[in-house]
Specification:
The complex is a heterotrimer of chains A (105), B (330) and C (120). Chain B has 330 residues and is mainly alpha-helical. Chain B has 15 helices and no strands. The chains are: A mainly alpha (105), B mainly alpha (330), C mainly alpha (120). At the B-C interface, helix 1, helix 2, helix 3, helix 4 and helix 6 of B face helix 1, helix 2 and helix 3 of C.
Chain lengths: 105, 330, 120
Amino acid sequence: MTALDVASGVLLLAGSLFAVTGGIGLLRFPDFYTRTHAAGLMDAAGAVLILLGLLLLAPDLGSGVRLLLIAAFLLVTGPTATHALAHAARNDGVRVWAEREDKKR
Amino acid sequence: MSTFDLAEAVLLGILIVTAVAITRARSLFVAAMLGGLFSLVTASLFVLLDAVDVALTEAAVGAGISTVLFITALALTNSREATTPRRRVIPAGLVAVLATAGLVYASFDLPGVGDPDSPVQTHPITDTYLRESQEDLHVPNTVTGVLASYRGYDTLGEVVVIFTAGIGVLLLMLGPRRPADEVKDRAYLQTEYRVLRVVSKTLMPFILLFALYVLLHGEYSPGGGFQAGVIFGAGFILYTLMFGLAAVQRVLPMRTLVVLVAVGVLIYAGVGVATMALGGGFLDYNEFNPGNPSGGQVAGILLIEVGVGVTVAAVMVAMFYSLVRRGVRR
Amino acid sequence: MIATHYTYWIIFALMMIGLYAVMSHGNLVKKLIGLNIFQVAVFMFFISLGRVDGGSPPIITEGIEVYSHPLPHVLILTAIVVGVATTSVGVAIAIRIYEAYGTVEEDNALARDAAEEGTQ
């Protein structure tokens, strides 16, 4: 168990934690926008951390570069997709939770 | 139970739940998006089952193009479905349950999953495809070797099927050209979704470059003509979604696409005719380089992969253009 | 028996869920989505037939002796692309039906046809 194994294990565990909490958030949050935020976190943080953890264990330079490129593209496209969803919902008129709560009172 | 079995069981469970959710979803947009999720989880399952080429194709085609097709269909029709009448549920459910029972009973004769003594593994053709293909073709990705060389005829038929489907969709969706169409197509996305615009413009060269890489590297890693064509088409579909039909037609007009759809099939069949002209059989790539047959094979495989990629890309983009034009007209 | 065959059974269940979606819903687009599920389940079945325990993807690399069989992969590659071709034609026909009948529900379209035949 070298230091590299331990470090990659920590990163993989952190990434999985983000993925699990993102999933729980997707189910438990009260509002569309907060749920989209949870899902976006899964994409940007969880996947990238897992990929970084795998990067530490990469057998050669080629695999390492590929993993970095995948992480970079995920970082770019994940938050963009979340933004597109939220923007489209806002345009469509999906109401924010706080506003709905105010209206109830 | 190894981790592999656990992963497989979890993925299969997710697939069952997703399939049931698709059937029960009342809103068709939800059903289409869940269909994309279904294809993506299936692609992961394919990787687990050692089918990496198939996983790449399923992810690109099932999770990409199919979802786009369904959502475009929903945009051009209405998206809410009526309640299922009771009279349909009982017979359909009965047929489904009985068919499942019959299939499960038939599966008792099947070899277990992963059995090394199954007829699939012990047949002599396995040796041909895995060992002899290395001496004949020198192509490490045996799937590409079998697809392009040993079974080149089937792949020619497949390209013609895509060609026919493209022509069919174009015939159904395109009407006579009217000058009013161009005016109505407004790229309103351009003013609103600034982040999307910038990101998609930045990503376009990478998408097209990746498509080219998948095409050329298909002999050494998962990839090949189909995946490359689909990724190329997906790039142009993204551009059309962001900037409108008028902008993308400045780069790739419909006339060029219609020609390209045919050019791919022409390249493929042309390779076959060329080998016949050089004295061999139809699609006998050895004739390209009689002194070094495996060099001829590599050249032939590359040429037909290019033909396949061109047709698939052109058909995907042309279908999307025609669907958009149909929607614009209304 | 269960441990080696349960994959097949779950795949059959998926196929039949897709078939049920095709048979029991009247909406044409929903039928197409159900047909897609059926197709993908058939692909899974084929691929699971080609798998070997302890094998690896059929890309010849140094030092690996056991590979999964490439032929099912080739057949399924063809099938996937043919599947998307037929789905696209189906979608185009559904759109044309919507334009001609004003509905994508099978029952309403058939009722309109029957009514027109009755008046003729």
